[in-house]
Amino acid sequence: MVESSGYIKARKKLAVFTAILLIIQSGLRHVGVGSDTYNYFCHFEEDIRLSWSMIFQNFIDVYQLGVGKDAGYAVFEKLFSIMSSDYQVYLVFVAALFFCPLMYLIYNNTKRLEDIWLSVIMYFALFYHFFSVTGIRQTIATSFCLIAYNCILKRKLIPFLVAILCGALIHKTAFIFLPFYWIANMKSVNKVLLVAMVLFPVMCVMGYQFTKQLALLSGSENYIGYADEGSRGAYNLILFYFLVAFVVFWKYRKNYDFKEAHSGIFNAVSMGLILLPLSFNSPNLVRLAQYYSIFVLMFMGYINEPSNKFPRIPVLILLITALMYKIISAGDEYAFFWETNSFMTY
């Protein structure tokens, strides 16, 4: 498909408009929306009142004495407080920090106007609960990883490492994205997928031991607690992830040129397949996979790519119906910060 200049501008405008809507929806949410928005509010109010000497002392306590975790987040909050001490402004800033690189990624890896909205539908079905209304620290860390991905494409190792370090100071789990610098540009996409398919059942069986080792390396008792939690996994996410991944890998099974041209996206989805079984040990550990699984959003556009031998329309109808059902059945309640709904208890 050859894009005219007018069509390119229309896609850019749609991507920008969509990013603005997502930023408004996430950034202007009521403090009671999401499982930990209020907890982060208390954290923010406390940290911005700390002196810089206390902030740096906390940094030393965490990284030298092993007391506490992710001291970079307090530094991030303190730096932001130079511009504003308003928590609502902070939420808008965090939303912009995440959705701008995400929409840039979607725009650069899709071809059609409708591809952007197809990706957004999938986002709301699979990732909304985490990135839009909760998980602020990892949302920031993921934004740095999305920025790091652009460094991978440009083969800029030092900026990549800086971006990963910034993300890891906010949330240690960002280090899981570090190996991707060498994996992303592997052109043997099928081999990477094969390795992922082999490792998936292995991780289902050995996930506890792997998680335990990661927890010990992190030095955080919180992550050790996740390893020992042993509760149910994120089955809905894994089901939809597998479904979309299977459809795309099957559709392009013989289209080697397309897979090589988009090797970073395909390899990221394969990496997500390796890490998703960790959630069987604890739903909290799905956050390790989300640095990679977020790339599956681009697959909706790949499904929408016309093909003479692929039933594109029926498959899209089935997927959109399933995704919309998941969104509607979630029954999420939402309010803007100026609303005082009775359900907002925190």
UniProtKB/TrEMBL annotation:
Coiled coil: none annotated. Keywords: Membrane, Transmembrane, Transmembrane helix. The chain crosses the membrane at residues 87-107, 116-137, 157-180, 192-210, 233-252, 264-280, 286-303, 315-337. The keyword Transmembrane helix applies. The keyword Transmembrane applies. It comes from the Bacteria. InterPro entries: EpsG-like. This is EpsG family protein. It comes from Bacteroides thetaiotaomicron.
